[in-house]
Backbone:
């Protein structure tokens, strides 16, 4: 299965609306019966894929106008976007939001997709990407699939390391936000930047 981030919007939409090719054993005998496939792992996986496709299309559609007009000066706006971005994600994903001199969104990029509890981010790769985007400011975010947004010691150390790397190339780190299931942790708000 192709990674969603590598697919074009057209490919995402085509796969989203494609009907299942084989519908054997799904005929209904009356108005209250359900197809035999409901609740099976294969069916659940297909539903999850459709939801992931729809979420990716939504994020892209929301991001396009935001790239031209969205100023990330409001923590509330950032959190609303991150809530959509990380909804239902079962692995840690570390991303960067690149901003121009007026704090308008240039682009977002997944820097690392990890496991249930960890992800690796390499400062060298981040520096290359930030320079390629011609960013003036940067904001980091990652999720904790466990639901608890409290930072680990590794999160704190990584934030310090990335901040130092960005300072060397005159890019200011505005925040590092950790997204839990119902709450957020902001390094900037806690005075840890």
Residues:
């Amino acid at each position: 299965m192709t990674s969603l981030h590598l697919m074009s919007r057209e490919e995402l939409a085509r796969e989203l609306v494609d009907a299942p090719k084989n519908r054997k054993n799904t005929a209904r005998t009356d108005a209250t019966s359900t197809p035999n496939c409901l609740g099976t792992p294969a069916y659940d996986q297909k539903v999850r894929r459709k939801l992931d496709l729809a979420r990716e299309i939504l994020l892209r559609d929301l991001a396009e106008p935001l790239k031209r007009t969205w100023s990330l000066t409001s923590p509330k706006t950032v959190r609303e976007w991150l809530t959509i971005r990380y909804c239902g994600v079962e692995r840690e994903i570390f991303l960067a939001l690149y901003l121009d001199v007026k704090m308008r969104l240039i682009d977002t990029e997944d820097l690392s997709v990890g496991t249930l509890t960890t992800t690796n981010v390499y400062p060298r790769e981040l520096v290359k990407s930030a320079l390629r985007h011609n960013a003036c400011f940067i904001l980091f975010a990652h999720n904790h699939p466990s639901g608890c947004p409290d930072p680990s010691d590794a999160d704190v150390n990584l934030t310090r390391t990335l901040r130092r790397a960005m300072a060397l190339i005159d890019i200011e780190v505005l925040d590092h936000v950790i997204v839990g299931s119902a709450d957020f942790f902001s390094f900037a708000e806690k005075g840890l930047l």
